[in-house]
Structure formats: structure tokens, C-alpha cells
Amino acid sequence: MAIQTNGTFTYNSGVYSTPYFRIVLHLPQDGQETPVDCFMYSSQQAYASGSGQIACLPFYINNTSASVDNSGDNVINKYLLYVTEQITGSLEAMSSGSTFDIIEIPTL
Questions:
Q1: Strand, coil or helix: what is 48?
Q2: Which of 7, 36, 72, 74 falls between 20 and 30 A from 80, CA-CA?
Q3: What's the angle, vertex CA 50, arms to CA 82 and CA 28, rounded to 5?
Q4: Residues of 48-85 as b/e, b for ≥16 C-beta within 10 angstroms?
Q5: What is the pTM assigned to this prediction?
Q6: Helix (H, G, I), strand (E, B) or coil at 24
Q7: Average pLDDT of the chain to the nearest whole number
Q8: How confident is the model at residue 63 (pLDDT cuts 50, 70, 90)?
């Protein structure tokens, strides 16, 4: 799963033009929160070519609002979409004014 920034993203006093984010979920230890690593790359091409990430942003996604039913409309896994949407919201809170598109999520 991935998130593409539309425009700029401000992080750690730096301003990045259209960075690309890859999301890696880890198994929740207690079932309450899912640990997620969100890797920031300068672009989708930088990720594809094996360039190093700019940063790794750790998130803990609270699972209490996640749907019990995992059947998604046009997505293979509704939980993966839920986690990606939560990360997108957190990124928007970190860099006000930035907008994002969820890309590369498995669809039906």
C-alpha cells in the first residue's frame, strides 16, 4: 500500500515536493493497536529504483473503530484500506495543507 502526496509535505523543518509513502503493517501485540511503519521517499521512482528512504514515520493505529466485516467495496481487504486511511489522516495532521491519494492498494 502506498500514499502519494499532491503538492508539498512539511516534515522536520523541511519541505518536500510530492513525496511518496510506503506502508508496512506489523502484527498487533495486544489487538488494540496496529504498529505501522510509514517510509517516506522522494518519489515513487526513487522507491522503485531502490533509493533509501528519507524517513520512517512510526504510527500506532487504534483498531477499535475498524470494521469487524472485512469485505470491502472494490478492495481486497477493507482493514488494509482502514489502516491506510488512518495514516493519511495522520499525515494531513502533521503537514496542514498537504493532500494525499491512496494508491497501490489491492483491488478486486
A1: helix
A2: 7
A3: 30
A4: eeeeebbeebebebebeeeeeeeebeebeebbbbbbbe
A5: 0.87
A6: strand
A7: 89
A8: confident
At residue 39, φ and ψ (nearest 5 deg) are: -90, 130
Give the model's confidence band at 75: pLDDT under 50 very low, under 70 low, under 90 confident, else very high.
Answer: low
Cα distances (angstroms) measured from residue 31 to each of 38, 66, 78, 80, 95: 20, 11, 17, 15, 29
Map residue 23 onto helix, strand or coil: strand
pLDDT value of residue 107: 63
Q: What is the pLDDT of residue 79?
A: 81
Question: Which residues pair with residue 21 across a beta bridge?
Answer: 3, 40
What are the cell numbers at 52? Answer: 533509501
Q: Is the Cα dihedral 23, 42, 10, 102 positive or negative? A: negative
Judge whether 58 and 21 are in contact, CB under 8 Å.
no
Q: Locate cell 523543518: which residue?
A: 13
State yes or no: pLDDT of 21 exceeds 90: yes
